């Protein structure tokens, strides 16, 4: 292998050809994993590319192939999401690091969720899309299919349309959470639910209701309260509950931040976890165990979700069987 030309301002295919002693065409095909190129040759070329700091000219690639080599993560960045965004991005990036694709995060807030999807598709800004906060009848799915854009969803739809997705089993989470509270002797359970309109809310309500009925427990219904509710409002609501007859003695939460607000509210009025109440919460980051070890924690691994979504969208781009691009992760303690 020839010595790298350190005076070159930017490594090109010619640079790699000079380093490896191969032709430019062979180098190009090796970087694209052409099956006709020997594995040892691919290894040599990729090692040279890494050492030389080679990066494909994305503008040139797009002109030649029509590909952007971009995956767009369309992400709602509003509401409680401690640990979700960064861990999801880390997981996606881990998978894409071994591919020609780069991740671009396209954020949106309270706008029409179709707006960022249309923007990406109409301007041909990506080769594949990952969408979050999936809805039961999600029009983004129909739009992406109609426009032949490969995609994966973080969550399932209820439309019957087969598409790539990764989901967390919130039905099992809610059921197990109630069972753990019942095992602690809790009788009156309040559910801090996912927001209305999202698929995983339906799954969570199904698991929660089944367990409440099966175990003969009482549900305290918290109207207009969910994990998107402002944290100060959650805190005030929970404090007010302690003034009523027979307040909840167990809580199921789908958000670490909502859990923190509840704990702060209850401790402020002299209540103690494991004595007067118990909370089952999702643990999406290591910090909850530091915050209050007495909480009952069930893990949801957002980094794993990111990895699964990246693999799903890459499989969609490659044209893999859609059923092989669907996965559901179970909760772990």
Distance from N terminus to C terminus (CA atoms, Å) equals: 51 Å
- H and E order: HHHHEHEHEHEEHEHEHEHEHEHE
Q: Which CATH architecture of the largest domain would you pick?
A: 3-Layer(aba) Sandwich
Number of strands: 11
Could you tell me the CATH topology label of the largest domain.
Rossmann fold
The amount of beta strand, in percent, is 15-25%
Estimated helix fraction: 40-55%
List the defining traits of the structure above.
Rossmann fold; 3 domains; five-stranded parallel β-sheet; 11 strands; disordered N terminus
What layout of secondary structure does this protein have?
Elements: H1 13-20, H2 24-31, H3 39-52, H4 58-65, E1 70-76, H5 84-96, E2 102-108, H6 114-122, E3 128-131, H7 139-146, E4 151-154, E5 165-168, H8 170-183, E6 188-192, H9 199-214, E7 218-220, H10 231-241, E8 250-253, H11 256-268, E9 278-283, H12 287-291, E10 296-299, H13 302-318, E11 326-329
Parallel strand pairs: 1-2, 1-3, 3-4, 4-5, 5-11, 6-7, 6-8, 8-9, 9-10
Helix pairs in contact: 1-2, 1-3, 5-13, 6-7, 8-9, 10-11
